[in-house]
Design brief:
Mean pLDDT: 80
Structural class: mainly alpha
Oligomer: single chain
Distance between the termini: 49 Å
Strand order of the largest sheet: 1-2
Shape: globular
Radius of gyration: 20 Å
Largest sheet: 2 strands, antiparallel
């Protein structure tokens, strides 16, 4: 009985620690994404156009950014919301 309770307690504590770690990792990442999105959103309309997303990039870097933009723009409306921006293609 004690062994069983000890195993349950250990499993519960482990699950709580894993959940806490996952939440802690999501928090700073989400804040980083919001700040990066805000910096790119030149007209502050909470949408990123392709030109805002690509910015001052040129050559291969611009082509790569345009491709990333198109992959993230799942609904094809030629703009990215924070949710679309935050999802990795």
């Amino acid at each position: 009985m004690q062994v069983m309770l000890s195993g349950i307690l250990t499993t519960t504590i482990f699950a709580m620690c894993v959940g806490y770690t996952m939440e802690a990792q999501a928090g700073p990442s989400a804040q980083f994404e919001e700040r990066a999105f805000s910096k790119l959103d030149a007209n502050r309309d909470n949408l990123l156009t392709e030109s805002e997303f690509v910015g001052e990039k040129a050559g291969k870097a611009a082509a790569k950014a345009k491709k990333q933009f198109q992959m993230r723009d799942k609904n094809g409306d030629k703009s990215l919301t924070l949710k679309e921006y935050s999802k990795r293609p």
